[in-house]
Amino acid sequence: MMIGGKRMASSTDFILKTVAPSDMSDEAKDAFKALVISAGEVNAQTLPALVEAAVALVMLYDGDKLFGTAAVKRPHDSHRRDYFRKAKVGASADSYLLELGWIVVHLDYRGQHLASKLIGAALEGAGGSKGIYATTKNDKMLGPLAKFGFVVQGEPFPSSLDNTVNLTLFARSST
């Protein structure tokens, strides 16, 4: 497959792994964190502890190269409640205790609908849990999130990492 003049492996050549943090080597965790940080949408200081507390981590490889990540994580209560409050749906925050996030696909691999594979694997790794929320600033994530039952909640709000960018809150029913 050719993308941007480069030969790319097809998605059938990729290796998808879903694991609990306790089942990962330190090297694999470091690679996971590095790719997530490279996307520029996380606090690098809080990421290590959140990775350790995650329910499921998903990694997508092309051979030995990690190029995609996703997770179902346990956010801090204050973070979760703050996001729901900012979206003006604060009363429902405690119905969504888990967060789908860290969905990253390296630029060289985009355009192959890999976000859906990552989301599906993360949700499966979490046992199909309901009561999960997600946030995104990327309109291209609207379709994949909707495909898995996520619905927009409240109003978009400024990101705490870059207040010139709005986040949209999505939730997957807890019932």
Describe the structure in your own words.
- This protein is of the alpha+beta class.
- Helices cover 27% and strands 31% of the residues.
- The chain has one domain: Aminopeptidase, CATH 3.40.630.
- The protein has helices at 26-38, 47-53, 77-86, 114-125, 142-147; strands at residues 2-3, 6-7, 15-19, 56-62, 65-73, 98-105, 132-136, 150-158, 166-172.
- It has a seven-stranded mixed sheet with strand order 3-4-5-6-7-9-8, sandwiched between helices. A two-stranded antiparallel ribbon has the order 1-2.
- Strand 6 (98-105), helix 4 (114-125) and strand 7 (132-136) form a beta-alpha-beta unit.
- It is globular, with a radius of gyration of 16 Å.
- Mean pLDDT is 91; it is low at 1-7.
- It comes from Tsuneonella suprasediminis.
- Residues 19-172 form the N-acetyltransferase domain.
- Keywords: Transferase.
- This is GNAT family N-acetyltransferase.
Task: List its salient traits.
175 residues; Aminopeptidase; globular; GNAT family N-acetyltransferase
Element order, helices and strands? EEEHHEEHEHEHEE
Structural class: alpha+beta
The poorly predicted ranges are 1-7
- Please, how many helices? 5
How large is the share of residues in beta strands?
A: 25-35%
Write down the overall geometry: globular
CATH topology: Aminopeptidase
Number of strand segments: 9
Mean pLDDT across every amino acid position: 91
What's the gyration radius in Å?
16 Å
Please estimate the helix content: 25-40%
Find the CATH superfamily: Gcn5-related N-acetyltransferase (GNAT)
Organism: Tsuneonella suprasediminis
InterPro entries: Acyl_CoA_acyltransferase, GNAT_dom
Pfam families: Acetyltransf_1
Protein name: GNAT family N-acetyltransferase
